[in-house]
Amino acid sequence: MKPAARRKAWKSPVKVQREGTKLSAPGIGDDTRSLAVLLALIRAMDAAQIQTASDILFVGNVGEEGPGNLRGTRHLVTREYKGKIDYFISVDGTGLGVTSRAVGSNRYRVTYQGPGGHSYGAFGMPSPIHALGRAIAAIADIQVPTTPKATFNVGIIEGGTSVNTISPSGSMDVDLRSESAQALADLDKKFQAAVRNALAAENARWPSSKVRISVKVDTIGIRPAGAQPDSAFIVRTAVDAGKALGFTARTSASSTDANFPMSLGIPAITIDGGGDGQGAHATSESYDDGDRGWLGPQWAALIIAILAQAR
């Protein structure tokens, strides 16, 4: 059985557990909180019969995380509403911060392949898993800048059929990130070199072998980096709206739905949804409204009210 055929969807119970004001469930804060904010905002504006100079489009999209590769936002911006969006605001997670800059990412699935064989009887041939190990070690040794920040991660490794088999395949999923397009491109070159050098080294290790292994690099996700100054009107609006509500919204760089519109030159930000979230992306994730959770929806409402009047 090929390793790819063994990939299974990881499932976890998502029933919400309540303990006072604390709610616990996978995804309860990131990003179920955004849906709660969106619905509260729509209901409040409708109840108050608020009229704006510009149209406001409320969207619940899909495919932001992982292999989704921002497909919901890509569809919205490039097809349904291409050329019609003046400002883009995403609500993601908890707290009261602003994502004003986009961290780009290149994601790959690297697969080393060969004929495989018995660990004793066929010993002396290149091994896809050994090549994979060489590549992972080389990636781990890549030197990256801290300013602008660039990161790498081997998140998934797969391969092998038994302990006494030279595997016919070994694969890894790799994530490369930076808010600088140039730094990301430089990191990508080093990653590609590590992958190719590992292949060459493993084949060279067994010069008498009649077989050689190969490598395939598949792109599984590209998120563009985006540069936008904190002096941009949409960013200043979010920060000023926070001050009007009594808090300081700190700006930061992250990877969100705002990446894609920002890369196209559309003014875009991602704001937190308020409240207190813990353990994002963990099965123990929790969300607590506390006594200031209402600030999330009010903040979003004030930002939208200002932008919908602006031209």
Calculate Rg over CA atoms. Answer: 24 Å
Return residue spans where pLDDT drops below 50 for at least 5 consecutive residues.
1-6
Tell me the name of the CATH class of the largest domain: Alpha Beta
Could you name the CATH homologous superfamily of the largest domain? Zn peptidases
Mean pLDDT: 94
The strand count comes to 14
Structural class: alpha+beta
How are the strands of the largest sheet arranged? 1-2-14-13
Biggest sheet layout: 4 strands, antiparallel
User: What is the chains' assembly state?
Assistant: single chain
Bulk shape = elongated
CATH fold group of the largest domain? Aminopeptidase
Helix-strand pattern, N to C?
A: EEHHEEEEHEEEHEHEHEEEH
Summarize the structure.
The chain is α+β, with helices and mostly antiparallel strands and 311 residues long.
Question: How would you describe this protein?
Answer:
The protein is 31% helix and 23% strand. The strands form four sheets. It has a four-stranded antiparallel β-sheet, with no helix packed on it. With 311 residues, it is of the alpha+beta class.
What is the element layout, followed by pairings?
Elements: E1 17-19, E2 22-24, H1 32-47, H2 71-80, E3 88-91, E4 98-102, E5 104-113, E6 117-118, H3 128-140, E7 150-159, E8 165-166, E9 169-178, H4 181-205, E10 214-223, H5 233-244, E11 251-254, H6 259-263, E12 268-271, E13 276-278, E14 286-288, H7 295-309
Parallel strand pairs: 3-12, 4-11
Antiparallel strand pairs: 1-2, 2-14, 4-12, 5-9, 5-10, 6-8, 7-9, 13-14
Helix pairs in contact: 1-7, 3-4, 5-7
